[in-house]
Amino acid sequence: MQNMQETKKHQLTDWLPTTNREVKVRGWQQLDVILFSGDAYVDHPSFGPAVIGRILESYGLKVAIVPQPSVNDNLQDFEKLGKPRLFFAATGGCMDPMVSNYTASKKRRDKDAYTPNGDKGFRPDYATSVYSKILKDKFPDVPVLIGGIEASLRRVTHYDYWSDKLLPTILETSKADMLVYGMGEQPLREIVELLQKGVPFSSLKNIKQTAVLINQKEEKIPVVNDWDDVTINSHEACLNDKKTFASNFKTIEQESNKLKARRIFQEVGENTLVINPPFPTMTEKEIDGSFDLPFTRLPHPKYNKRGPIPAFEMIKFSINIHRGCFGGCSFCTISAHQGKFIASRSQESVLKEIDKVANMPDFKGYLSDIGGPSANMYQMKGKVQSICDKCVAPSCISPVICSNLDTSHKPLTELYQAVDKHPKIKKSFIGSGIRHDMLVPEFNKNADPKELDAYTEEVMTKHVSGRLKVAPEHTSDPVLKLMRKPSFTYFHKFKERFDRINMKKRLNLQLIPYFISSHPASEVEDMANLAAETKNMGFQLEQVQGFTPTPMTVATVIYYSGYHPYTLKPTRTPKTKKEKEDQHKFFFWYKKENKDWIKRTLNKVGRQDLLKVLLPENTSWKKNKTTHKSAQHTFDDAIPFNRRKKKVSRTPKSKKRR
How many CA atoms lie within 13 A of 518 on its CB side? Predict the structure, then answer.
């Protein structure tokens, strides 16, 4: 009902068409591109399919979206709009469909956040491949272009946790003609320009940030004089030897994050996979142009009677200020998809979008988030560009912060202050994850400590609703090193600063840390240490999860192969259901049903010292003021890393703005 009221001022033609009737309303006879998506169609800059649709539209193309086509009937959704003039496009949506459909223990989820009412069953497993194969079967002469996070992370031989198999490039399984990886604006621009000039789609083999399969018996791999090439182990070699598979990943990750990357070749059966180098990081003008497109910021009216779309409700009043993350965490897919270099929007573009949000009919004055993949990386980049040009490190802040990285938080603090000056903004929250380590002077030696304190105080006093959530992830230094996260000692130092500001400003805020169990290199004893150390700090944990192996991460390569891809040394990972459940139990040491097990386990490994901390005899642990009531998470309920969003409750209407 709410969406109905919001869309009254819009015309149906304000959205990209989704049906034949909507195409005819625009007076179009034939479409140039038809995009199939695993998500419901939300015309918002945080939804990748909408961004791609709007980008193509901005190039003067006639574009339609078929959201969540049915694959369980006569497949009429794939034929209803006919054949496009240029190509079909297919994406599994904003999340890998397997992460969207299954928990960490491979149980089917009850909800799909990108479907009206959270209904499940509208997105098939391996959606990109399913859509592409149907399109190639029905329209064999029409090119199919795939993209989005599912295609991006599966562009090369990869381990698929849900089938427990090593799979070839998704180009092989989907039968698609081309894959666009990462953010699609730049490669799409070049593809469209060449197609509009009459260049056949089949000739587009050397577009940056794309991948293609080439049968060398039928055609030659094009020579590009200013590109260097590297060949990794074949898919068949990877199938035969796990260590061989692991050794590929170092090259793949480094080339994904270099400004001058090499073209990657991999033999897949009789074909050769060609992964072309990525485009340079988007300029401020380019990324502004993407966000400034004419989005309605609303779900398509077709969903008005089907219920709210949870993912949209979560970000409806949020603002994305940058892309990319230079953290390079071993378990995270962000850098593999968005890259490690930060592409930041201008303050003008951000304020322009905020003005649009502020004038939405049901906006009450509260922005749920001003952030990005990591909230506090806005406008950060290398001080000397030539140093970045030669860099092959997957992380700019692990094991230490690069001396060439400008980590000033001043532009971000100024952006927050500019946002809060808007007459219709009562409060702006930071819902994205904050890198707490970058706010600790002992770790972030590049920054002015006063500036870091100013940012921390700005966030705590004006942009948090009761709780500040950060992600130390573990307490064990060996595990953290493998994760590419700093020592837990820096979390202690951050908490000291947090407590000092909390007391000084009388804020009564809570600090909520995220942790992961069953990560590679994590043993039961490490989890016991984690439980004991966090208990001593006054925490009763609630933001916890089990490690979920997703394609294109160091941790997943280790999980499958047993080898670290950079050292090729054996590295153990908890893999059995029992091992995972045992590690997870330590998060909930205070639960009655876990206490006997914890006593037996710690006595067995001779760690009575930890037992005395966790379960002291004849005493009951009392919560202090910084302790938090636990959510009743189980291992099956663990939220995948790339789905974790920090929910922010709005300030009650009765509270006046300070």
Answer: 25
Which pLDDT value is given to residue 8?
Answer: 53
Structural tokens at position 553? 């991460």
What is the C-alpha radius of gyration for the chain, rounded to an integer number of angstroms?
A: 25
Q: Residue 29, SS3? A: coil
Topology at the third CATH level for domain 2-207: Rossmann fold (3.40.50)
| CATH fold match for the domains 2-207 and 317-643 | no
Interaxial angle between packed helices 48-58 and 185-196, expressed in degrees from 0 to 180 and rounded to the nearest 10:
40
Domain residue spans of the chain: 2-207, 317-643
pTM assigned to the model: 0.91
Q: Is the dihedral of CA 40, 46, 49, 54 positive or negative?
A: positive
Tokens standing for residue 48: 């990748």
Largest CA distance in the chain: 82
Measured distance CA(19)–CA(235) in Å, rounded: 40
Name the token pair of 476: 């064990």
> What letter does residue 38 receive in the DSSP assignment?
S
CB 323 within 8 A of CB 343: yes
Mean pLDDT, the chain, rounded, equals 91
d(CA 69, CA 36): 7
Calpha distance 415→538 (Å, rounded): 34
Q: Which whole-number Å values give the CA distances from 377 to 173, 411, 412, 442, in the listed order?
A: 36, 10, 8, 18
d(CA 170, CA 167): 8
What number does CATH give the domain 317-643? 3.80.30.20
Ramachandran region, residue 568 (left: φ > 0; alpha: ψ -120 to 50; beta: rest): left
Q: Is the dihedral of CA 241, 243, 246, 250 positive or negative?
A: negative
Q: How far apart are CA 18 and CA 20, in angstroms?
A: 7
Among 367, 362, 156, smallest CA distance to 251 is for 156
pLDDT digits (tens, 9 = 90+) for 281-330: 999 999 999 999 999 999 999 999 999 999 999 999 999 999 999 999 99
Question: Contacts from 507-512 at CB under 8 Å and sequence distance 24+?
Answer: 507/460, 507/461, 509/460, 509/464, 509/466, 509/467, 509/468, 510/466, 510/467, 510/468, 510/626, 510/628, 511/467, 511/468, 511/470, 511/626, 512/467, 512/468, 512/469, 512/470, 512/542, 512/543, 512/628
